[in-house]
TrEMBL record:
<dbReference type="InterPro" id="IPR033124">
    <property type="entry name" value="Ser_caboxypep_his_AS"/>
</dbReference>
<keyword id="KW-1015">Disulfide bond</keyword>
<dbReference type="Pfam" id="PF00450">
    <property type="entry name" value="Peptidase_S10"/>
</dbReference>
<keyword id="KW-0732">Signal</keyword>
<dbReference type="GO" id="GO:0006508">
    <property type="term" value="P:proteolysis"/>
</dbReference>
<protein>
    <recommendedName>
        <fullName>Serine carboxypeptidase-like 34</fullName>
    </recommendedName>
</protein>
<dbReference type="InterPro" id="IPR029058">
    <property type="entry name" value="AB_hydrolase_fold"/>
</dbReference>
<dbReference type="GO" id="GO:0005576">
    <property type="term" value="C:extracellular region"/>
</dbReference>
<comment type="similarity">
    <text>Belongs to the peptidase S10 family.</text>
</comment>
<keyword id="KW-0645">Protease</keyword>
<keyword id="KW-0121">Carboxypeptidase</keyword>
<dbReference type="InterPro" id="IPR001563">
    <property type="entry name" value="Peptidase_S10"/>
</dbReference>
<keyword id="KW-0378">Hydrolase</keyword>
<dbReference type="GO" id="GO:0004185">
    <property type="term" value="F:serine-type carboxypeptidase activity"/>
</dbReference>
<keyword id="KW-0325">Glycoprotein</keyword>
Amino acid sequence: MIPILHELMSEGVRVWVYNGDLDLAVPFSSTMDVLKKMNLTIVKEWRPWFTGGQLGGFTQDYQGNFTYATVKGAGHDVPKDQPIHALNLFSLYQLSS
């Protein structure tokens, strides 16, 4: 996975990775371990994102056009568990391109 992400980033592809904060299949801690192994530089620290004034989760940006986001209250199937937050997150991704 790490070589693929690095290759995408080296080609200028914007990469977003997200997890539900209740995901037991791919837990937040596992994703953070991968990010540490990638040795990316943080360019924007953790900050909240919102859907209609409700906390949707947190996001952090890294050098190389890489963003990691969490979705509050979602498990492995984010769009099923938190459909409104998922739609907002995907919309934010599209708007930031």
